[in-house]
Design goal:
Shape: globular
Number of strands: 10
Mean pLDDT: 89
Strand content: 15-25%
Distance between the termini: 27 Å
Number of helices: 10
Order of helices and strands: EEEEHEHHEHEHHHEHHEHE
Low-confidence stretches: 162-167
Helix content: 40-55%
Number of domains: 1
Radius of gyration: 18 Å
Length: about 240
C-alpha cells in the first residue's frame, strides 16, 4: 500500500479510509509530510472537518531538543524560493467546529528523558549536523531533493529496513516509542467506539503510518478507498 508517492511531477499523499466488517467506525489515515504547500494542508484541514475525532501528532510542552531537531524542516520552509510551508493545520479551529482532538504523542519531558538515553556522541552529532543540513537545504535545496526521500509504503524500503535494523536509542525514541503510544490509543478507540457511526482521522508523519496500518490490520481493518492529495509539485 502506497502512502506517499514520488513521481517525475511531484509528491502525493494517499488519504486512506480503513474499515472492518461489521463495524460502523471508519478510520481515515492522513500520512503527513512536515513541509508542503499551503494548498495541501488546506485540503487536509477540509477533510478533517468531516471527522468526529482527529488523532494528531505533536509532542506537547516546550522542548529545546525537539525545537533543535525540527530545524531540519522549519529552516528550509522559510525559503520563498521553495514556496513550501511547515505543516499548517488549524486544530483549534477544528475543535471549535466540534472535532474531538486526541494527542497520544509524548510530552516534552518524556522526549527529553529519552534523548538523554541516546549515547552522547550520537546526541552531539545529531545536534551539530541538523542545523548545518537545515541551512544547506534552505540555501540550495529543491523540491526534488525533498521528494527524493519522501516515498513511503506500508512495507519498508531497503533504506528503511536498514534503519529498522539499527536499534539505536535515537531511532527507538523517534520511531518505536511514539508508534507504541499511537497504536495503543487507536486500539483503545476501536475497542470503545467501533459500534459508533463516526469517522476518525489520523494525522501523523508518514513514517509512523506503516505501524498504524499493521495495528489496524491486526484487528480486522482493511483499506476500503483512497484519495491522492498533491503535497507539492516539482518546479
Amino acid at each position: 500500500m502506497q502512502l506517499i508517492e514520488t513521481s517525475v511531477v511531484g509528491v502525493r499523499s494517499a488519504v486512506i479510509t480503513m474499515q472492518r466488517p461489521g463495524a460502523q467506525l471508519k478510520i481515515v489515515l492522513f500520512p503527513m509530510l512536515h513541509i508542503g504547500t499551503a494548498a495541501f494542508y488546506r485540503q487536509v484541514t477540509e477533510r478533517l472537518a468531516n471527522c468526529q475525532i482527529a488523532v494528531v501528532e505533536g509532542i506537547s510542552g516546550q522542548s529545546v531538543m525537539v525545537r533543535a531537531l525540527t530545524t531540519a524542516y522549519r529552516t528550509p520552509a522559510r525559503s520563498k524560493r521553495l514556496g513550501l510551508v511547515v505543516q499548517d493545520i488549524n486544530y483549534a479551529e477544528l475543535v471549535m467546529a466540534g472535532v474531538e482532538l486526541l494527542t497520544p504523542d509524548m510530552t516534552s519531558e518524556q522526549f527529553d528523558r529519552g534523548f538523554q538515553a541516546v549515547p552522547w556522541p550520537h546526541r552531539i552529532g545529531v545536534l551539530a549536523l541538523t542545523p548545518v543540513m537545515a541551512v544547506g537545504l534552505r540555501l540550495f535545496g529543491t523540491r526534488r531533493m525533498f521528494g527524493r526521500y519522501a516515498e513511503t509504503g506500508d512495507l519498508p524500503t531497503p533504506v528503511q529496513e536498514d534503519l529498522v535494523d539499527d536499534e539505536s536509542a535515537m531511532n527507538k525514541l523517534i520511531g518505536d516509542d511514539r508508534d507504541k503510544l499511537l497504536t495503543t490509543a487507536l486500539h483503545s478507540l476501536v475497542q470503545a467506539r467501533s459500534g459508533e457511526q463516526i469517522v476518525v482521522g489520523v494525522v501523523y508523519g508518514a513514517a509512523h503510518m506503516p505501524a498504524v496500518v499493521r495495528a489496524l490490520a491486526s484487528v480486522g481493518f482493511k483499506a476500503r478507498s483512497a484519495e491522492w492529495l498533491t503535497a507539492f509539485a516539482y518546479d
